[in-house]
Amino acid sequence: MITNKTLHHLHDAWCVLMLTMLTLGGIQTSLAFTTTDRSLAYNSWKNAFYFTSNGNGYFRDQEGSGSVQYFWQFGSDMEVVEAAVALGLDTTNTVNALCAGFTNQNGLNWSWDTYNDDVMGVGRAFVGAYQLTGNRTWLTLAQSGFDLGYSRGYDSTNGGIVECTSGCVVTTETADGCIVPGYYLGQDLPNSGYTTKAQNLYKFLTNYEYIASSGMVEGTPNSGISSTSTSDYGFFMQDSVLLGHTSNAQAASAYEMSRWDVVFGNVAGSPGFCLRAMGQSGINVAWAQQACDNAWSFRNSRGIVSDWSYRVSDSVPVNTYDAMQLAMGMLAVPPINTVTLTINSAIYAPTNGANGGTNVTSLVAGKVSNNTLSLAVNNTTLGGDPSPNNVKALTIICTVGGHQETVIVPENSTANIMYATGTMVSATYLPVNGSNAGTNVLSRFGTVHGVTICNSTMGGDPAPGNAKELKMVYSVGGNSETAVVLENAELNLF
Q1: What does the pLDDT look like over 266-307, one tens digit per residue?
Q2: Contacts of range 53-57, beta carbons closer than 8 Å, 24 or more positions apart
Q3: Are residues 248 and 351 in the same domain?
Q4: CATH number, domain at 103?
Q5: What is this structure's pTM?
Q6: Residue span of the structural domain in which 276 resides
């Protein structure tokens, strides 16, 4: 019997002999934070800081304080709640209450806040609120916030956003989450003009604040000095993945990891935003899990964290924004006991590079059900032809069980991606029509990493002239599961 195999994903490919010899088996880890811990972390944070008044929701700025969290920090708190709702840990009632509380506290016209990244950043929270509730009032406010910051701050000289209306320390910047709301406004309104703005702002980032040779994200344009805020790295990673530049995100993540250890230099510059990007993108997830687990070990008796390197005395009141960082990270980074298939990006593009293709991430992600994706790859299913008369392919970057994988599926074939773990019990190569019992090919998967299912790799043709398939039976937690891979499709074991 073959043991300790992990069946991560299956996807179509042409029949080419492809045998890579690797030792199989799951990655061993000592990480401890689980879905139960994640729920406790979120609820502890919310219980410590959230309150309602006249039906409106608010976050106080510190434990025991009567003061409401400041404008942009309030928006970040809202994003954490939205992540919890997406995981089933809260409801849209809390989202609507917070939107009402925010507008009651700050009004509908945010021009009094002179920081352009503030008003555009709060737009992120309201876009998220719209996506969860369908309330277009929140979408309109998101649009207003983005428009306000963009109109006041856009610098036509180099294409970035001036941070504030006067007396800015940083002359021009875009990293603080300004691109994300523009990207989603382009989709949700819909209005391609916002998509173009997001793309142009990203060009500014790569031209003036990103060093491709090292992955460094600068704090000040053209300074040659890394940002001291991990949130800048997080937003750059998020922007890069959204716009289809995953290699930039990977390089920035590698630089960030080399600069800060898992305690993030003792909470340097909002690490929750960086962890969120890692979790959402699937980049360096194992490291992000370690960072979350490390911080969670220093929670106080109320289940909240103020410092990432030691436990702060229970008598010391904790700031909401400090405590929010771990909640944000743990809601995005997959716990050790979760089985997940997450679509990080999906680009449908011509294989000859004639153009950048179409970002179909949301469309593809919406097809995932029970950690399985089965999707025909063609112009109809993917919403149109991004490059007429050219051969195309769908490139999917996904996270399966905490590991990032890339799947390239040719046009007019099918993407079949699934995640499952367990012990393979049997593997049989047989005719689809059942004309005979087929061949036992279990031994062929002892050290195989990637193999295309066809006669040459399966040791012969068990039914000449008939379509064939590989049927695998594996045991997961005492239950028997079956997976089927059609002839001429590629099987990958990780």
Answers
A1: 555 689 999 999 988 878 887 898 899 999 999 999 999 988
A2: 53/101, 55/97, 55/100, 56/97, 56/100, 56/101, 56/104, 57/94, 57/97, 57/98, 57/100, 57/101
A3: no
A4: 1.50.10.20
A5: 0.68
A6: 35-332
